[in-house]
User: What shape does this take?
Amino acid sequence: MDSSTITLLLNLVYHVLVLSLVALGLGIVFGMLGVMNMAQGEFLTLGAYAMVVAQRMQIAAGWGILLAILVTATLGYLIERWLVRPLQTRPLDTLLATWGLSLLVRKGIEAVFGRQYQNITQQIGGSTQIFSVDYPSYRLALMLAIVCGLLMLGLWYKHSTAGTRLKASVANPVLAQAIGIDVKRQACMAFVCGVACTGLAGALLAPLVRVEPLMGMDYLLGSFFVLVVGGLGSLSGLFAGAGIIGSTQVLVSTMLDQTYGYLAVLTLSIGFLWLRPHGLLSNR
Amino acid sequence: MAYFQTAKQAASLLTLALCLVAVPFVTNDFRAYQLGTYLLYGVVAQGVALVWGRLGFLPLGQALFFGLGAYVAGLLFIHAQDNALLYLLLPLSILVPALLAYLVARLVFAGQYVSGPDFSLITLAFTMLGAQLANQFTGLTGGFNGLANIPQLGDLDRYSSMYFLIVALVLFSTALLSWLYQTPLGTLWLAISQNENRLQFFGFATDKLKAGAFALSAALAGSAGFLYAAQQGLVTPQAIGFQLSAELVIWTAVGGRFGPYGALLGAVGIGLLSSDLREIWVHWEVLVALLFIAVVLYFPGGMAHLLLNAYQFINRRSGTHVPAYAVAPKTPGLRAPPIQSCGGDCGPVHLRFDNVSVQRNEVSILNGLSLAVEHAGVYCLIGPNGAGKTSSFNVLTGRLARTSGDIFLDSQRVTGHRADVMARAGVGRKFQIPSVFNGLSVTDNLRIALWSNRAQARQLLESTSRQWRTDMLDFLENTFTFLADQADKPAGELSQGQRQMLELSMTLLAEPRLLLLDEPCAGLSTAETQQQIEVIVQAVSRLGSTALVIEHDMAAVQRLSNEVFVLHQGQLLANGTLKQMQDSPLVQTVYAGGQK
Amino acid sequence: MSLPAQPNHKTGLVVQHISGGYGDTLVLRGVSFTLGQGQVLGIVGRNGVGKTSLLRLITGHLPVAGGTVSWQGRRMGKAPAYVNRDLGISYAPQEAVVFDALTVSENLNLRQRNLDACQAFFYSFPLVRQRRNQKSGVLSGGEKKLVSFVRVMAEGADLTVMDEPTEGVQQENIALMAAHVRQRCEQGASFIIAEQNLTFLLSVMHQVLVLDNGETVFQSDAFDREGLEQFLRI
Assistant: This one.
């Protein structure tokens, strides 16, 4: 295999993994809990800007990541209590309210940081030799971290009591309550975790992508496409969706160009909505 | 009645026209030019108000159609300077957005009964794609800097006389939308936003209605884009992208999404204000975002609604809950045209379930259900919980997919047909929990039922269709007097029992050949139950239809029908007269819970 | 059967004139009863009469529109449903009786510390033990009901509320279920059981409440099979 093919494959794997990480948050919030959070992308933005703050304050990147998680979790909790829960039975209003929120967050970030692109330095610089090509080390580290993280998450969800209780609460809230599980609290914690995941993704991706107030939109849409194709409510659906969307985007972008990649992904999603609205592996 | 509506509309339109026309004379040409741009945005916002405020689904990418119209028109204007024939292609700037909108909406709505977030996100994706394409294909679109040097439209100077053409478009779109809102089609649009599922059971293909409205909104946006290109002389990717799309939603929300005037108010009011204040005060946009959230949560009608309330308060008129878009005085009425589905002369319906099974996740909801109905009359479906009674209705009307087996209506295989298709074939359904259009008046609810399977497209645009009456309506109003006494009350304010009676009336008014009634007496008092049963028996006999009634109350079953189907564990256990069922040890065992 | 302890407001369930429903319809009106320690109340009636609604009202899954429910001296109805377990009330609903996506043992020890409490039941119902690592979704309706029964009995609550526990269950197992219920009664536990299977009820209950059309039509601690069968006839 020549080096350009290896690089392409690495890019593909990278892309699919990043997409999985980013879509995980929406997968929890929308796929599992059924809340259409139009501000999900803004949580990613907040995570990225937390790194900007850390950099400006000249503290270690680790603190930046912590800040990202803290800020997004707190905001997520406030939203869950004051926006999502009261509007539980009115999905269109939830969509509208969260869309308004996303607007507010974007404008707020613009007001504080301005519209220009921010630059975050990579904590792990340089490149590493892998499969006889040079590939950026930060990306490799990130890919490894994502694989480990998702594996642990999968194992936790499958085998831990907390994971089982969450699964139970979502699948059959009446029975869960009968057993004594506080379903509302489970939903709240899941929501907070969902947005904090996206915040973490933002912090980790900040050195690699364009950091600006509008960055969240693309990630919201990407996550949405992943869920449309993969199906709602399961980790395997998330991977399937990320795999298909990610591969399509990378392959078409490489063969033609980025805009065609985007067009291909959009066409694929519309096709699924038309012909297979529940996605490939739906659990709901 | 239509006269009053038209007079009120004409007055509003005239006021708008005078105000707009006066602007260049009262201020100056430059202000008029500025206003002109925001008036064009206002027309696009009116399209957003149509789709969102009226039909209940949210387009997050409306600028795509505006920008598309602007780019197409701009290109044509530029190249028509060399080849005048290209002027003939100008309607494309309206048709291309409209067709794209229709296609996307049809595809997205095909797989779902009701609108979800999918549509909003797809429109968002499209606007992002549009901006990307505009930025990329520099040769065609001028890229990031835009399509420049677009000539004026004919002799219309863009800084002076162009304004009046824009005003003409605004008046046209406002008039068109105001008119459409008060036609029967406008009522159907509102019904979609309130209870789309229910409307399908009246035979209306709501996905086509939604797509059509979306196409209309795109056409309006395209026409605004067309004039925009001529007025500005320059079209940049800003005109097609996310920012403008987001602002359009904000303007529509804050101005007022329930009518065309509100949308205009929002675009002009907030839009113009923003363009001035945005540079001066960096926090202006944050304030607008907060304003949007406040409007969404507390003032859904926006500024227009607040102003209207203030106006009514000043004039000491009592506000009504239902906007005055369709209030008919009591006229003698017209005889309604006949039902479409069968030409009125088809004989009793033949229904056959052939070994129908429905499996979901290892659970058998229906397990080889076979039953047949050949003669007109009322039949009752009884059986313990989970027997599959409501599921049999669901599988017949396209709400539950079958795993195996078939259903035949009049010897035609109807397995898997959608709810609206079945309704058009003459199948009417009444739900266990009464499902009506809560925000519409009782009269409008009844009208929708009257239009079901009767009104042709043209008639949905004529206000005379509101005056239709049928013998069945006379009969129902005599029995359920509240239908006439509380005709203007929003259906949501009726008691549960009254809503049951209303829903039954609506189902009967559509004169279905096969009536599916799911616990029609649930929640009714003893006296009301008796009345309800009488109505069912008499109506079915008048119509010569067949009714399948799911009931638990054995006294009601006794009065309603002579033939009973007993369902158990997804199958037909037994059928016969009620007496035979009462004497059957098999049936009694199932009910008394002995050996199963 | 020996005479059970008299109901006493500190240890029993006192229900007075409760009503409730969905939207503005009342599906249950004015039902009252008292239940003491070691007693079983059977709720009888055809489907659609309000049995499930009554049980939902008692366990807090349906808001009480009128009347009161008092358990062990405290008024119920204010707190969300999930607190009831800690107050000593267990509930086995009529539908969706297990978590389909979880295995049988996960279903059984979701809030149990250990499986010891289930041992006695594994002995009586070997199939539950055999299938303990299978996903509950693949079990038959009757098997799911059995798992639900084991779960709710193992919780060892002072008051156990069961909605049609024998539906779809095999005859031999029903008799064993009745034996377990009687055993728990002797230890002082109370039960409310809504059932259509009169054989089962007659072998466990101390008082009966018959519902029709959302109201009580018969209520007594003296009853016989034929009398009750009349109420179930169509």
User: Anything to note?
Assistant: The CA atoms of residues 350 and 374 of chain B lie 5 Å apart. The longest helix of chain B spans residues 206-232. Chain B has 23 helices and twelve strands. Chain B has two domains: 2-314, 351-592.
